[in-house]
What does this fold into?
Amino acid sequence: MNQVVVFAPSPVLTVTVEDHPEGADIHIHAGGQGVWQARMLRALGASVTMCSVFSGESGRVLHHLLDDEGFDVLAVHSTGRGGAYVHDRRGGERIKIAETGGEPLSRHDLDALYGLTLRAGLDAGTTILSGPHGEGALPADMYRRLASDLRTGGRQVIADLSGERLRAALRGGVTVVKVSDVELETDGIVSDRTLLSDVIRAMHRLNEDGAQNVLVSRSEEPALLLADGVVSEVHMPKLEIADTSGAGDSMTAGVAATLADGGSILEAVAMGAAAGALNVTRHGLGTGEAAAILRLRQLVTVTPLEEERGASTRVSPDELARRVREE
It folds into this structure.
């Protein structure tokens, strides 16, 4: 079974108020980028280990919730405030009522978290580096150190990050960077995300800076993949949208699950595209049925941009992987 470690330094306790015929319906869950990735990984059959710090009252509740979901959690317990938010979705849209990013992790907590993540990542073979809920939770350089040490150990590292944390991970070297075009524009890596040429230039810069493969999600537009020097468009099914939140995390999980199982980067991106496409049809973040994702995966096509300028030929990820192997 494919094994994946999710570095989720500070998960978040989520309280969501939904509408109900008899009044408010209140849901309490574990959330945050790493948690949503872990859920989709498990849905795809991966064996998942989460490495996290749980702080204060919300942290104790979070750890229990994740245990109840059956996750293998390597935990560091800390005092202070943990991350949490309250959202009201009774009107159909998410309205933020209250939110806290929690407090910065102490040096002792960081050392403990680093040690257990490195050990788990070396054992598993594939690690996702996800961001914390709070901006100041931990120093960005921790991502560089983890990426560097895991890659030195011959392991696969997938970074789903932005800003200084992304730049730090690149300095350590990663197998795949997954980032959105919005994040590229926000970080100043591209001046106009609607210009395909700007996004492609940015992808090559990320490759030069330390990313072996680069995957850029673009909302309604086809995602872009840079692999082996070739930029391709990833065309995925367009389904009815219930909630776009968590689609990018589901994409990352699909990529990680496939790479951990020995698949190629092309096969991994196809699985990620299918997982992200299914996730938008659901209100639960990082959720979906493996059978539906596998069916959608057959509808994903990859178009190398060089071919698109000519015959506009679209091929399946399996066929494109076969061509690469033959070359």
About this structure: The longest strand covers residues 47-55.
